[in-house]
Description:
The structure holds 2 protein chains of 2 kinds.
Chain A: E1 16-23, H1 28-41, E2 46-49, E3 60-67, E4 80-85, H2 88-93, E5 98-107, E6 116-118, H3 120-126, H4 133-144, H5 149-159, H6 162-183
Parallel strand pairs in A: 1-4, 4-5, 5-6
Antiparallel strand pairs in A: 1-3, 2-3
Chain B: E1 3-8, H1 9-19, E2 22-27, H2 35-46, E3 52-55, H3 59-71, E4 75-81, H4 82-98, E5 104-109, H5 123-130, E6 134-135, H6 140-157, E7 161-163, H7 167-170, E8 172-178, H8 194-197, H9 201-218, E9 227-230, E10 237-241, H10 243-256, E11 262-266, H11 275-284, E12 287-291, H12 297-300, E13 308-309, H13 324-335, H14 359-370, E14 375-378, E15 394-395, H15 400-412, E16 421-426, H16 427-443, E17 448-454, H17 483-490, E18 495-498, H18 503-520, E19 522-528, H19 535-540, E20 544-548, H20 557-562, E21 567-569, E22 574-576, H21 587-590, E23 596-601
Parallel strand pairs in B: 2-3, 2-4, 4-5, 5-7, 6-7, 10-11, 10-12, 12-13, 14-15, 14-16, 16-17, 17-19, 18-19
Antiparallel strand pairs in B: 1-8, 9-11, 20-23, 21-22
Helix pairs in contact in B: 1-2, 1-6, 3-4, 14-18, 15-16, 16-17
Amino acid sequence: MSRKRKVTAAQGGMNGQIFMVGTGGQGILLLSRALARIAVQEGKPVIASETHGMAMRGGTVTANLKIGDYAGPLIPAGSADLLIGLDDAEASAFLYMLGKGGISIVNTGEEGPFDHAIDATGMALKAGMPGSVNMIMLGFVTRILGIPLEEARRVIEELSPSRTLEDNLEAMTAGYRYTLQRSS
Amino acid sequence: MKGTQILLGNDAIAYGVLASGASVVASYPGTPASEICETAYRVSKQEGLQVHVEWSINEKTAFEVAYANAIAGRRSAVSMKQVGLNVASDPVMSAAYMGTVGGILLIVADDPGPHSSQTEQDTRLFAMFAKLPVLDPSSPEEALRMAGDAFAFSEEFRTPVILRPTTRVCHARQVMEVPALNPEIPAPDFRRDPARWAATPGPRLTLHRELNERIARIRKHDWAKPRLVLGDRKAPVAVVSSGVSHSYLLDVLKGFDRWPGVCLYKVDMPYPMDPTELDRIARRHKCVLVVEESEPVIELQFTSRANVRGRIDGTVPSEGELNPEIIMDLLDGVTGRKCARGHFAPPKGRRPSLCAGCAHRSAFYAIKRALPKGIYTSDIGCYTLGLNLGAVDTCLCMGAAVSQAAGFYHAYKGSASPPPIAAVIGDSTYFHAGIPPTINALVTGARFVLVILDNATTAMTGHQPTPATGFTANDYEGRTLHLEDILKGCGVHTVLVHDPYDVKGFRKAVKEAYAKTASEGVAAVIARHPCIRDKKARAAQKTFRMEITDRCRLCGYCIREFECPALAEGEDRVSIDMTLCIGCGVCADVCPHHAIIAGGEK
């Protein structure tokens, strides 16, 4: 289903420019914050940009995360190392953000022009946790980037309100294991 | 809470303010500024700081509250979005004349783009108009530092200082060192000086002279000079920049290494600037490119602009946000190279929509049916998205729903069949700016239905309290004021309260109110249902298992007229996106073919 390609972002932990896109309400902010924290735990400088306000009401939502020696919070078009799509239509529309050798990891139930695909929406609905697409994607992404599950768990424990912590951990672990099954 | 943290720009500003010993922080919520006051409250409580933090009723009030504390010799901060400064402009203009004793920082967040605002106005230009110094942070980390440094500067020159972050600074996250929060907060010491604090026009002339002298002194301060941060003084091309544009320039010039012969200057304080220093730069380099958002404020302060490129000569676009791609194009333009990567038009993207289950949607749906062919004036908030239902005709500024409804009444009152008019305004917006125009409408004999969408919160900006929920951000819960009492106090006789989830009943209430307008002028309906993003309210609400039966003929009525984002055209019937649907059950009452069923409670 997905083309095999060398995952450059996995080398040396998290580095470079990560562009995320989805629609309002999918929880892209928490995903971005979690990835940022993982990078900070690795001792890397981080600058990120988020969308707040009007656009969060169901519209297209993007987030930029830059790990390393960067000053500005936006990723120039054509230079992202990684694109994470919580929605496949939005991801397709923003593929131009990727630079040479950049990879895409996208939530989709269909064939698409992406490097890595996972049907996070299907998994979330099946698990009875429709709001957990972001956490499934986080698990999936951390697995692809070669980040230890424990590191991601620790970050989710710090960021999640206690009410949603259990669900978040469960969803993230499911996303993480999904790759394990597929690559074995 | 010390040490290294990853902070949102607005959080960073709050830390800077608290570390400097501000004892009053006041604000009215507005994207992209809202988190400043929220964080100031949360952190001051955590750290046990003696700070009065309040969500004021509007920006003018916020400034006035904070300013009184400042002239009592204590440090104060007030935060708002750029259009909030329009509301606060009256006291701000006057305070520039009177000056201050304790440091006062006016934080105004601009929104080039615009992302969440009605204008792209540049607060730095307002600063020039008001004759107030303004700082332009280029990153969250710098915003923290500037918020801290500004207070001493404010006290040294006895002037309010503006900190002007933009959306990309407010809503950027960055790793930084968080300062210790153990400031000394002095006791209040208001010294009477009526010639200053209560100045009549005569002494105001003296104050204006003082203000001009003050600005002249500030022009000689270090902050008023551009700093060379990249490249050397002999470079043929100099880029002078401030704010987040400066950060993009740093990334682009360092990361791409394609524009030799370019040096970069940074401006920390875009107004007032030292003109001698600017002119020296213009003489030193063959070409000077000024990159700033959103108006040519630095550019205007060059005395001679023969070799200065920017917004005035049309080199830099006159509207819209600057981004790294545009900046690469600009560098190509002034160097004659071709290194930019071409233009990528961002996809149009999905339009925002009221949340699935939002009670505003039900209210709009009902209003349209109660008063067909009406004029629907509306206002600022989530509910502007009633546009998507064709139930919002105007949205001018905070409070204008009410005054414009009156204006339309007067415009049409002589005509053969004047249209029904409904003013639709949110609860927080009504408190902010809806009360005077209600009184005005009643006094001038205007007739319209006033619908207040009361979801008991300021939803769009992240759920700040309103006077009806308990007012302040501090532990003091405040007195709660009820919309019903306020409306009656303004002279509105008919005040109906109805839950818009009951579409039929709500429609009836709007019709009933409309019937009353003939004799009473303004008749009000309060649409009361909590915001479904309020987790407690959401948990308390009945939820249904929604189902589309085979009675669905795919007529599209529900999608078009109700516009719930959870409803989409499916293969043989409308489909429900279960990741969005909250099971409010309202669409069951909307379907003309009774094809949508609100099944047993979940």
